[in-house]
């Protein structure tokens, strides 16, 4: 059954409020002094993980549409991608504000000094044009072909995000590996799908 306009709006609202729940929980814990002994590190790490989660959810839309015929999911892909950008912004702002004290020179020096910061920064910068061109108006302005090519950057961004996460942790690499496996499955599906299309 094809969802109606009211159904789509309802689910968009549901996604919106659910996507904000992690942030609201963090703010609640922070207000009540329950965010741990190192709130800055916890906040930076949490926002980074949420960015990866929403990137992977965005990449899940196409396989789910094609495998299960859930074409309506395309209506929510933009929102998921924008939440990836939103949490990416919080990740960067928390790092710059609390770890670097809003020092541009200190941030640049850190990027040069620590490779995992550089990987994360490049990934975030690549995410900006995707967020800026997410609106239908921008799609019409730059053309569908250029828009599609530009938005393929999400693959590189997701890889960079996983590598960034892996490089941060020192010993417990379980969660970075989980993200890497999930991303590999999503890429594997796309490669297989492209191969089948070429054969056809």
TrEMBL record:
What functional role does this protein have? Answer: Part of the MsrPQ system that repairs oxidized periplasmic proteins containing methionine sulfoxide residues (Met-O), using respiratory chain electrons. Thus protects these proteins from oxidative-stress damage caused by reactive species of oxygen and chlorine generated by the host defense mechanisms. MsrPQ is essential for the maintenance of envelope integrity under bleach stress, rescuing a wide series of structurally unrelated periplasmic proteins from methionine oxidation.
Species source reads: Formosimonas limnophila
Q: Which residues form the signal peptide?
A: none
Q: Which residues cross the membrane?
A: 12-31, 43-64, 76-96, 116-135, 147-167, 173-192
- Give UniProt keywords alphabetically: Cell membrane, Electron transport, Flavoprotein, FMN, Heme, Iron, Membrane, Metal-binding, Transmembrane, Transmembrane helix, Transport
- In Gene Ontology terms, what is one molecular function of this protein? oxidoreductase activity, acting on diphenols and related substances as donors
Cross-referenced InterPro entries = Fe3_Rdtase_TM_dom, MsrQ-like
What's the protein called, per UniProt?
Protein-methionine-sulfoxide reductase heme-binding subunit MsrQ
Listed GO biological process terms: protein repair
Cofactors needed by this protein, per the record, are:
FMN; heme b
Where in or outside the cell it occurs: the entry states:
Cell membrane; Membrane
What family does this belong to?
Belongs to the MsrQ family.
| Gene name of the encoded protein | msrQ
Membrane topology field: Multi-pass membrane protein
Q: Which GO terms describe its cellular component?
A: plasma membrane
Name all Ferric oxidoreductase domain ranges: 48-161
User: How does the record describe its quaternary structure?
Assistant: Heterodimer of a catalytic subunit (MsrP) and a heme-binding subunit (MsrQ).
Cofactor comment text: Binds 1 FMN per subunit. Binds 1 heme b (iron(II)-protoporphyrin IX) group per subunit.
């Amino acid at each position: 059954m094809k969802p109606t306009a009211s159904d789509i709006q309802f689910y968009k609202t549901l996604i919106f409020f659910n996507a904000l729940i992690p942030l609201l929980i963090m703010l609640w814990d922070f207000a009540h002094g329950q965010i741990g002994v190192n709130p800055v590190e916890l906040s930076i790490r949490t926002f980074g993980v949420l960015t990866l989660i929403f990137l992977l959810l965005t990449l899940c839309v196409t396989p789910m549409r094609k495998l299960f015929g859930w074409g309506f999911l395309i209506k929510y892909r933009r929102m998921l991608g924008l939440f990836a950008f939103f949490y990416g912004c919080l990740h960067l702002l928390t790092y710059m504000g609390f770890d670097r004290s809003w020092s541009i020179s200190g941030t640049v020096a850190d990027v040069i000094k620590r490779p995992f910061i550089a990987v994360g920064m490049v990934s975030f910068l690549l995410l900006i044009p995707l967020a800026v061109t997410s609106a239908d108006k921008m799609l019409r302005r730059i053309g569908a072909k250029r828009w599609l090519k530009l938005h393929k950057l999400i693959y590189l961004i997701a890889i960079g995000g996983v590598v960034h996460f892996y490089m941060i942790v020192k010993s417990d690499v379980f969660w970075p590996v989980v993200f890497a496996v999930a991303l590999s499955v999503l890429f594997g599906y796309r490669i297989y799908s492209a191969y089948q299309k070429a054969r056809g």
